[in-house]
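#lab-general

N.A. 3:47 PM
ok so I finally got the sequence cleaned up, no stray characters, all 174 residues accounted for. can someone with queue access submit it? mine expired

B.Y. 3:52 PM
send it over

N.A. 3:53 PM
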Amino acid sequence: MKRIPLVLFVLCAGLTLAAAPVLNAKPAAPEKGKPEKQRELVVVVVENLIHPGSGYDAYNRAAYVFGDVFDKRKWPVKVRFERFAANTKDHPLELQMFLKGIRHDFPDEFDFYAWVILKADGKKLDLGMVKGEYFAHPIEQGDDILDGAVRAGAVKVADKIQPYILGTKPMPGS
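B.Y. 4:20 PM
back already:
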């Protein structure tokens, strides 16, 4: 009977001694030249709540297409999308998009419209109305046409905000 408590004591002592270096270890220092935390660009999408019976609403389409365009730019920020919500605090780096819709004025021409505002560290840059023009192919499917129109707008928005995201151009008032 005395053997079992002795075996348990030896086992516990061995585990304690083995775990001591792990418990006393200091966190690893970040590598030189690498930022500790990647900045986050939060894209706040404001859409009309009353939209025609589409299962794929404007927010989902904008998040998918804009996310794809921004990811291909390989910016040093993590991009996150969220719907507009009242009484929320501003994010350190925020892009507000007020979706105005897609218009079909001429045959095979689809125009995407959105009002865009970039906010960074308490400064605000109103980029105004952005228009993306897309010319559809004769046999192109409806969702592909809408994605193409939104992509044309996303490329224009990305071109406008890229100098501020990369830091090559300071925000007004800096």
